[in-house]
């Protein structure tokens, strides 16, 4: 009789453990599925990693970004659904820089898993040399298709499509640009690198010119040129960390 009770108790413990394990697996699976759906089609969060957008966004700031704004990408493919709008001048956006290659199918499959289980701290993406690289960065849209961009002393002059005159970026952006712009050293020739000047750059169809607000500390379209619209992944819509800076950036 005692042996029967012991076997019954052991059997119940195994059954309960099995049920708990099965329930835990279903919860994790559903949470992962929900994360993928929401992150790819609606909104997700991102951590600012550099000072390139200072003082607008500082390192370690946390922001909410919307993939729905410009059209969510379909998971495990290169297809994209229609968005609510096109990227506009002044938008702060999350981009995939040109030096980050398109990943293989296997990496596209496991990238969401790496992000989910490491709280977005890990990535499977690599640069052209095979080194691990942050797959995305935050920049500001300065030029849109049809614009011609001219840089003078780290500031952009924009000739909009159909216009004959260049206009300072501050007059075309919807909000004041708190750009940090240090001039080149005294006597530095304006034609030399790092002078903050450039030849005119005409943007073609679906091409965008993006810059960091901290112009002297930013890798952006000045070095890699305009980017295709397909590389603009999401729009930054809200900052939720740190508490003292909560709000629209």
Describe the secondary structure blueprint for this structure.
Blueprint: H1 2-41, E1 43-47, E2 62-66, E3 92-95, H2 105-117, E4 137-143, E5 148-152, E6 155-159, E7 167-168, H3 169-172, E8 201-202, E9 207-211, H4 221-224, E10 227-228, E11 232-241
Antiparallel strand pairs: 1-2, 2-11, 3-4, 3-11, 4-9, 5-6, 5-8, 6-7, 9-10
Short note summarizing the structure:
This protein is 24% helix and 21% strand. The chain is α+β, with helices and mostly antiparallel strands and 249 residues long.
Description:
With 249 residues, the protein is α+β, with helices and mostly antiparallel strands. The protein has helices at 2-41, 105-117, 169-172, 221-224, and strands at 43-47, 62-66, 92-95, 137-143, 148-152, 155-159, 167-168, 201-202, 207-211, 227-228, 232-241. It has four helices and eleven strands. A seven-stranded antiparallel sheet has the order 1-2-11-3-4-9-10. It has a four-stranded antiparallel sheet with strand order 7-6-5-8. 24% of the residues are buried.
């Amino acid at each position: 009789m005692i042996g029967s009770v012991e076997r019954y108790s052991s059997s119940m413990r195994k059954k309960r453990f099995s049920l708990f394990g099965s329930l835990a697996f279903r919860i994790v699976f559903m949470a992962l599925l929900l994360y993928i759906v929401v992150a790819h089609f609606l909104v997700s969060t991102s951590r600012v990693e550099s000072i390139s957008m200072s003082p607008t966004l500082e390192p370690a700031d946390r922001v909410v970004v919307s993939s729905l704004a410009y059209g969510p990408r379909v998971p495990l493919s290169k297809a994209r659904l229609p968005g609510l709008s096109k990227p506009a001048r002044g938008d702060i956006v999350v981009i995939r820089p040109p030096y980050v290659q398109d990943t293989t199918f296997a990496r596209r499959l496991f990238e969401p898993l790496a992000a989910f289980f490491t709280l977005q701290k890990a990535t499977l993406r690599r640069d052209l040399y095979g080194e691990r690289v942050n797959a995305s960065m935050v920049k500001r849209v300065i030029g849109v298709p049809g614009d011609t961009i001219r840089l003078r002393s780290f500031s952009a002059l924009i000739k909009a499509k159909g216009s004959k005159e260049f206009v300072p970026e501050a007059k075309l952006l919807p909000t004041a640009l708190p750009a940090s712009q240090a001039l080149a050293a005294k006597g530095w020739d304006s034609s030399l690198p790092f002078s903050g000047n450039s030849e005119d750059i005409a943007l073609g169809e679906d091409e965008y010119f993006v810059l960091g607000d901290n112009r002297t500390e930013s890798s952006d379209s000045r070095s890699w040129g305009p980017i295709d619209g397909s590389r603009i992944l999401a729009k930054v819509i809200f900052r939720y960390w740190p508490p003292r800076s909560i709000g629209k950036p």
